Amino acid sequence: MKVEKTLLGIKKKKTYPPITRDVLLSLKPLMKEGAVLSIKDIEQNRVRIEIPIWIIGDFANMDDMYDEYEAIVKEPCEAKIVFDKKTKEWKIYSR
Asked: Which residue of 46, 53, 57, 61 is surrounded by the most CB atoms within 10 Å?
């Protein structure tokens, strides 16, 4: 859910539908090795919301994982979870 302001400055809550099971199942191959979904790096415009996903691997130490994330985030992401605001559907786009 996101709070947005209208033209008159009145706050309006906007809700998004949950991600469907089929979309989540299509992420399964990416998650086998370990993946990072970066909420911090979301790209949003009037038409869509894009959540980037990077394949990062399996880590026991979170500090090592974060160091790897900082290095890999500079490269293009492996896939994106995309919400199309016009059709109100979630989709997966991968390279």
From this structure: 53
In a domain, 5, yes or no: no
Q: Is residue 30 part of a domain?
A: yes
pTM confidence score? 0.78
Q: pLDDT of the chain along its 95 residues, tens only?
A: 455 555 666 666 678 899 999 998 988 888 888 888 888 889 998 899 999 999 988 888 889 988 998 999 889 999 999 999 999 999 999 87
Q: Who contacts 77 (Cβ-Cβ below 8 Å, separation ≥6)?
A: 52, 53, 54
Residue 28 lies in a domain: yes
